[in-house]
Amino acid sequence: MHRVDINARDLRILDPLLSYPSTILGRERAIVLNLEVLLRDPSDENVIPVVEELRRRLAPSSSAQHDGKDNLSGQHDAEAAEEDESPFEFRALEVTLEAICSFLDARTTELETNAYPALDDLTSKISSHNLDKVRKLKSGMTRLTARVQKVRDELEQLLDDDDDMADLYLSRKLAGASSPVSGSGGPNWFPASPTIGSKISRASRASAATIHGNENDVEELEMLLEAYFMQIDGTLNKLTTLREYIDDTEDYINIQLDNHRNQLIQLELFLSSGTVCLSLYSLVAGVFGMNIPYTWNDGHGYVFKWVVIVSGLFCAFMFVTIVAYARHKGLVGS
Fold first, then answer.
1. What pTM was computed for the model?
2. CA atoms 22, 26, 27, 30: torsion sign
3. pLDDT tens column, 198-233
């Protein structure tokens, strides 16, 4: 903390147990970065590729400093160092942003690989298993979208503020602070790190003319941030497309359920109409089935046949009339 001149409040935003938004802060001698993917343990399998990439990106100048016996190798490393004039902090920031964007993009690709087949299965067959599977995928997509959105918003906010981007020029600030004192004074706050010292020394010489000309020139950092902003924005567009596909699938399923519900309502209408007609037929049978003496019932056995036939025809006609009326009003399908 004393070497890089930051306080405990800046380190607190890196604590995963505390709820802090995505942040990129420029301090006098350090850049504090929290973009949803916390890189703490160098031996972690997710962090090892980032460490290896940092070693690869920052290797030329350290090789030129420590390998003085091999002239050819030293000359090659020196030429490579001269070709890449990006400050040390920008190369480290680029590796970090690349790791974060690649991590989120990989999670998005994995989610797409699992989501689209699950949605197709749900479309073809609506079951509790498929619904639960899609529910879990949708929950994961919501959490991932929130993480990607936070990173995108932080990069966008940083791109909109030139002063915040200027604060990330550590080499420029170091060169500006050391140049009035002495021309040979090197960075004294990384004495045990020749790699970092050589990087900052080279970046300080490369940006010395820029310091006195325009301290707010952030074109190099702006180009770097815009590249990864476009990448994270593309990841967010993938998630947005996936969300729209899920919404379309849900709409399609709701239409299917509504269609089945309408079919059940039609069946219920037919059954209710038939029940009414049969109830009327049963009423006629019940009236004539009472044990009450009728004078006209004696010697008129043929009346029973006509009562049964007329009642049946009337109930059937009534059922057909109800169904025809329902079709005419559009209550049932044709």
1. 0.65
2. positive
3. 444 444 444 444 444 455 567 888 888 899 899 999
